[in-house]
């Protein structure tokens, strides 16, 4: 009886202290500072023993990782009607949609404006939308914000970047008028996945929306 109780104790100890599964999540550079942490925290509240592996990279790289089954799901983005070229076996859900704002150094000549129009800033060197085709040009967000903090350039960024706490002291964000494009964030996974941990993560995200 003592040996059986010891085995039960060891099993309980294992379940309470060891990882019992794994989730591999790829995500777009930059969003971890603004919108992703809450989702991970919410998931851990009910699944504290799941090992979550995070892979931070460009949109193209994380979508290639999903395509090659290197991750279970990804958080990626599109702008406006820039539709995702989904593989036949991909499932997706749009979880956020943000307007664009103009970001700049607080000492910029436009920083006192209450709002701006796209044509006010379209010729600035760090505007990250092609001024002719409005195709999203994905760049490293950290590098963009650092550049803005030390320069007199501007950038059109998704509104959630206002919460990027490391640069709040240096940057001003101004509403962009007459600009219908929006920045969408999607979660994408393989349709026929049998990964119960992934299903639990998807449910956790759905609850928090």
TrEMBL record:
<feature type="domain" description="LysR substrate-binding">
    <location>
        <begin position="18"/>
        <end position="133"/>
    </location>
</feature>
<keyword id="KW-0805">Transcription regulation</keyword>
<dbReference type="InterPro" id="IPR005119">
    <property type="entry name" value="LysR_subst-bd"/>
</dbReference>
<keyword id="KW-0804">Transcription</keyword>
<keyword id="KW-0238">DNA-binding</keyword>
<comment type="similarity">
    <text>Belongs to the LysR transcriptional regulatory family.</text>
</comment>
<protein>
    <submittedName>
        <fullName>Substrate-binding domain-containing protein</fullName>
    </submittedName>
</protein>
<dbReference type="Pfam" id="PF03466">
    <property type="entry name" value="LysR_substrate"/>
</dbReference>
């Amino acid at each position: 009886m003592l040996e059986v109780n010891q085995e039960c104790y060891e099993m309980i100890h294992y379940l309470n202290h060891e990882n019992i599964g794994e989730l591999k999540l790829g995500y777009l550079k930059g969003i971890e500072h603004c919108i992703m942490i809450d989702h991970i925290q919410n998931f851990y509240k009910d699944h504290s023993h799941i090992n979550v592996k995070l892979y931070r990279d460009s949109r193209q790289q994380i979508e290639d990782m999903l395509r090659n089954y290197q991750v279970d799901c990804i958080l990626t983005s599109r702008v406006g009607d820039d539709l995702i070229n989904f593989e036949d076996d991909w499932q997706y859900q749009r979880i956020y949609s943000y307007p664009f704002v103009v970001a700049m150094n607080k000492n910029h000549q436009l920083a006192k404006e209450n709002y701006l129009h796209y044509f006010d800033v379209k010729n600035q060197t760090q505007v990250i939308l092609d001024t002719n085709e409005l195709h999203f040009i994905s760049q490293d967000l950290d590098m963009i914000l650092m550049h803005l903090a030390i320069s007199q350039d501007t950038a059109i960024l998704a509104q959630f970047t206002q919460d990027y706490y490391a640069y709040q002291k240096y940057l001003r964000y101004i509403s962009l008028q007459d600009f219908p494009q929006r920045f969408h964030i999607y979660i994408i996974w393989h349709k026929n996945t049998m990964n119960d941990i992934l299903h639990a993560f998807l449910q956790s995200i759905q609850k928090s929306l």
